[in-house]
Amino acid sequence: MSEKPSQPPSESAFKGLRGIFWPIHGFELKKFLPMGLMMMCILFNYTILRDTKDTLMVNAPGGGAECLSFLKLYGVTPSAILFMIVFIKLANIFSKERLFYVVVAPFLIFFTAFAFIIYPNKEALHMSMATIQSTQAAFPNLHWLIPVVGNWSFSIFYILSELWGSVVLSMLFWQFANEITKVNEAKRFYGLFGMVGNIGLLLSGPTIIMTAKYAKSLPQGIDSFGVNLKLLMGAVAVAGAIAMLTYRWMQRNVLTDPTLYQPGQGKKKEKAKLSVVESFRYILKNPYLGLIAILVVSYGVAINLVEGVWKGQIKIAFPDMNDYNMFMGQFSTWTGLITILLMIVGNNILRKLSWTKAAILTPIMILVTSSIFFFFVWNGTKSSPLSPMMGTTVVMVAVMIGMFQNVLSKGTKYSLFDSTKQMAYIPLDPEAKVKGQGAVEVIGGRAGKSGGAFIQSTLLAAIGGSVSLASLTYILGPLVILICAIWGVSVFGLGRRFTALVSAKEAEKAAEEKASAAPAEQPVTAKATAQISN
After folding, report:
1. According to the model, what pLDDT value does residue 46 have?
2. Most CB atoms closer than 10 Å: which of 90, 100, 359, 468?
3. pLDDT along the chain (534 residues), means of 10
């Protein structure tokens, strides 16, 4: 039997190491552990899909890291917008529980079908290498777009893998978390959600490495990467099924427990659901959501500009698809380890510091690490004094520094950026939480990546031919610095509004409690809330 609290949980109950590593009450484990398991499964899939989609497209016939810019701009972004339109329609038809299943199941079905049906027949479905090369010669300004079209099933796999992170993790999981978590719980839960969830990264990295090693040990004549792909997508299907079953268990056992969840808290009337056009108009008119969108877009553009250059260096260092995938598995393992360490630090930062101070650390980390990476790649195109000392090639040094940059950036993103961003949604009304958050996460996230992709693809198309992104670092580096500056200014603006909105909600709750205790008194209600949306 779990303990039932006689009064709201107090953070002061946690002292010493318990306060640092596990500030969770015993009765809260029923809610916290299943959420952590869900996030672990979702991140496990996210990591495998992220590494596999890059391996497929970067090493596709005629392809390269430069293809990713065109694919993100002309494939991922339109698909995200289309999905958002469909999602809003589905949200008006299905309950929240059914909506989760209706959205997640098609992803798992496609990934399984891709590995066992589509990829084995890729030769019959795709353009031949000769056709791709002749078309590239005829249209040099579209050199990197042609492989995206020629290898169309890889492109669809890439698009859906990108949407998995935005839809299932950023939107469905965090909407559910925000629905059942209070602000005072979020300060303790959200950092630890990430820490428990990032065990998925620790599991996915070794999984990718083991399947790649097994595939490379197979006799010649067998499509080793095809075998690797079947093993990985089988693991994705299992993890996805566990996440769905856990969500169902929570619907039956957590959302029915008044100790852990009270629906309709605040006793507000539910607003009418908005149409697609009204939803977009609502977001554009809400400056609070607009600032969150700037944060999401800034992260997407900045990390995309860095990763494009880095993945090009990885392809040169690891031309074999299994070797490429194995390296990405090692990268994911390190990302998981560093992220969990940063989660411990980040969770305490969220509890001890203000929202603004916690949120500003991510743009600072990306600014510093990306500046080092771009400077080294730009310098390395001419000479590399560090290479002889490290006993490796210029390309390998660039790959290692890029991995260092990505591990720290993603670790900070998972430990602080995601948590602070999701905390910013909690004080909003239900309409903004569901549809506003959905539009910001899916469209805002894709706009961020497509913004970086637009910059890269425009430069590549303007120059034409087989020009690489590494040769454009003198342009891309200063752009990242500018984006991080805009990001920082937006953090401070959102921080002021978040603080005011939380204070308004607390004042409104206190007034309602006072009114229920003394019905004769007139409650002072959400005067401050109105000014947030103006």
Report:
1. 92
2. 359
3. 46 56 68 86 92 92 88 86 86 88 95 96 92 91 91 95 86 81 70 74 90 91 92 96 93 77 46 51 77 89 88 86 91 83 75 85 92 80 47 72 88 83 82 70 69 85 78 86 94 90 79 69 46 46
Residues 162 and 449 sit within 8 Å (Cβ to Cβ): yes
pLDDT on residue 105: 95
**How far from the centroid of its chain's Cα atoms is residue 400's Cα?**
23
In this predicted structure, what is the pLDDT of residue 530?
A: 46
Question: Taking the complete model, does pTM exceed 0.70, yes or no?
Answer: yes
Decide: 114 and 433 in contact? Cβ < 8 Å: no
Name all domains of the chain by residue range, CATH numbers in brackets.
33-260+273-532 (1.20.1250.20)
Token pair 């990430």 in the structure block, residue: 194
What one-character-per-residue DSSP string does 290-332 give? HHHHHHHHHHHHHHHHHHHHHHHHHHHH--SHHHHHHHHHHHH
Q: Are 24 and 192 in contact (CB under 8 A)?
A: yes
261 closest CA partner among 176, 169, 172, 351: 176
Alpha carbons within 13 angstroms on the beta-carbon side of residue 151 total: 27
Count of Cβ atoms closer than 10 Å to residue 252 Cβ? 9
Matching residue, tokens 């969990």: 340
| Calpha distance 359→350 (Å, rounded) | 9
State the Cα–Cα distance between residues 81 and 301, nearest whole angstrom. 17
528 to each of 428, 450, 493, 504, how far by Cα in Å?
Answer: 13, 36, 17, 5
Cβ proximity of 353 and 344 under 8 Å: no
What does the alpha-carbon distance between residue 420 and residue 413 come to, in Å, rounded to a whole number? 10
- DSSP, collapsed to helix, strand or coil, labels residue 56 as helix
Distance CA 366, CA 517 (A): 50
Euclidean distance between CA atoms 191 and 187, whole angstroms: 7
Do 369 and 404 contact (CB within 8 A), yes or no?
yes
